[in-house]
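Hey team,

Filing this mostly as a record. A colleague (T.K.) asked me to run one chain through the structure pipeline before their review meeting, and I want the input and output archived in the tracker in case anyone asks later how it was produced. No errors, nothing strange. Just documentation.

Input sequence:
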Amino acid sequence: MNNTALKDLVYKMADDQLILGHRNSEWIGLGPILEEDIAFASMAQDKVGQSLAFYSLLNQLGEGEPDSIAFFRHAKQFHCCHFVELPIGDYSFSLMRHFLFDTAEAARFELLKASSYEPLKNLAIKFLGESRYHTMHADTWMNALGKGTDESIERMQNALDECMPYALGIYEESEFETQLISDRVFAGELALREIWIERINSLIAKTDLILPDLARCSPAFGGRIGDHTEYLQPLLDEMSEVVNIDPHADW
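Output structure:
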């Protein structure tokens, strides 16, 4: 089994979860209703917890301590996709990102249940329960707002159109893709993308929303190889502000 390929896969999952978890946490105290404030806080906590588990796995594979990996890398060392880096925007954007990303993440965990790498397989099985709650929450709001009022439909359609190129960027293939597939570590980004398209299309078809023509969407690639948006480094600076005051403090 190629250790470098394995670490590359785990890094992108860990970084996606950490960054989107932090973004989701920015809705705490700002949610449109109390239940949504609590829901986004809970999902943010789940994602940060999942990132810790993935960083701990990386540590077992020879990388640094989880806190060091999370707080002391600069943007170019992160493997997250552009989609998770973007500011929260209005609630329609965050809900759409929630739907598109968490549908992908649930499918990723399902595929990883068959991974030949036992520690990764075990984490995927563990996180499937959390991801099902996330997708249920997202699906409920997509269904309600996607066939609600004229205003809700328009706002969700605009969010879908804006998000789609970034969502396609989730599936940026790595240089190790063939190795991961042949070693049966992971079925690959293209296989995951096909499952995701089928699932989001199935739900969107039940609403008044229209799935953009994916052939005309240019995927926002680059994040997996360290080429990030302007938003990531300021976010990392904010996340590490306290620990950078005294990196050796006993928390």
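Quick notes for T.K.: Residues 3-245 form a domain with the Ferritin fold (CATH 1.20.1260.10). The first helix runs from residue 3 to 25.
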